[in-house]
Each structure stands twice: as structure tokens, then as C-alpha cells.
């Protein structure tokens, strides 16, 4: 019985550390860093593939969106359609994250370069947890 209690305590401790926010300047929990890298990599993969549906999976219920000739706050479904049009107009050649970081509150950001034929876009996304689920709150594609 004592062993079961220790296992439960260990699992609870592990899960509580797993969900803790990252402080980018000190004491980064390596498990949390992997989770944050995974979400950024998943978002980057959707952008690189030009897959608006996969990208929209990570959208918040309302999202601040900045694209050429488009700037505003949109519902998840509206934003998906706008991003789909963007990807069809500017099909991806590549996408690379150049910088990423996080706050003490658990939000994280990434800045990258999206390339489409001869046009490059500085890309930025902000991810915040809503009810413990990371969601994109802001997404920007600005011509360089």
C-alpha cells in the first residue's frame, strides 16, 4: 500500500511539473520545454505545409489575424478561410522559426520566415493556454 501511495504521489508531482509555465530566464522544466517545442513545431509544420485546416486546429475561438490586405479579429472558422486563401495565393516554399520564447504566465511566441516563390513574409504567432490548452491568439504574415 505504501508503494502505491508513493507511485501516486510521484505521478501527481510529475504531472504538476508537466503543466507548470516556463520562465525563459531561469529554471526551465525540460518536460515543459519539450511540450512548448512540440506545439511550436506542430504549428510550424502546418504553416510549412500550407495546411490551413491543421493550423486552424490551434486557433483560439477568436484570433487576431494580420495578413496582406487583412487585419482584424476573426472567429476560428473565418480565420481558417482567410488563411486558406492566403496559402492558395502564396503557396509555401519553406517556413523556418528564427526566434521563440515564453513568459512566466505560460504564453509563448515564435517569429519566423515564410517563403513563397519570390516573396518572403515575417511571421509571428502568439500561443496562450486557454483552460490548459495552448491556442494561437495572434497570427501575422507581413511582407519583408
Q: What is the average of the pLDDT values?
A: 82
The CATH architecture would be: Roll
Largest sheet: 6 strands, mixed
Backbone shape: globular
Number of domains: 1
Decide which structural class fits the backbone.
Answer: alpha+beta
Number of strands: 6
CATH topology (fold) name: Nuclear Transport Factor 2, Chain: A
Distance between the termini: 63 Å
Bin the helical content: 25-40%
Can you count the helices?
Answer: 4
Low-confidence stretches: 1-34
Strand order of the largest sheet: 2-1-6-5-4-3
Rg estimate, integer Å: 18 Å
Topology as a string of helices (H) and strands (E): HHHEEHEEEE
**The CATH top-level class label:** Alpha Beta
Strand content: 35-45%
What's this model, at a glance?
This protein has 144 residues and is an alpha+beta fold. It is 39% helix and 39% strand. The protein has a single domain (30-143), classed as Nuclear Transport Factor 2, Chain: A, CATH 3.10.450.
Amino acid at each position: 500500500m505504501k508503494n502505491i501511495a508513493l507511485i501516486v504521489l510521484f505521478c501527481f508531482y510529475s504531472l504538476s511539473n508537466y503543466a507548470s509555465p516556463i520562465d525563459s530566464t531561469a529554471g526551465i522544466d525540460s518536460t515543459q520545454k519539450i511540450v512548448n517545442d512540440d506545439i511550436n513545431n506542430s504549428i510550424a509544420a502546418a504553416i510549412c505545409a500550407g495546411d490551413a485546416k491543421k493550423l486552424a486546429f490551434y486557433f483560439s475561438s477568436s484570433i487576431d489575424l494580420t495578413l496582406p490586405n487583412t487585419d482584424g479579429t476573426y472567429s476560428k472558422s473565418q480565420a481558417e478561410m482567410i488563411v486558406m486563401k492566403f496559402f492558395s495565393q502564396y503557396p509555401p516554399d519553406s517556413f523556418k522559426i528564427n526566434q521563440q520564447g515564453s513568459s512566466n504566465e505560460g504564453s509563448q511566441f515564435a517569429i519566423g520566415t515564410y517563403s513563397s516563390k519570390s516573396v518572403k513574409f515575417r511571421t509571428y504567432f502568439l500561443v496562450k493556454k486557454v483552460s490548459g490548452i495552448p491556442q494561437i491568439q495572434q497570427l501575422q504574415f507581413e511582407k519583408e
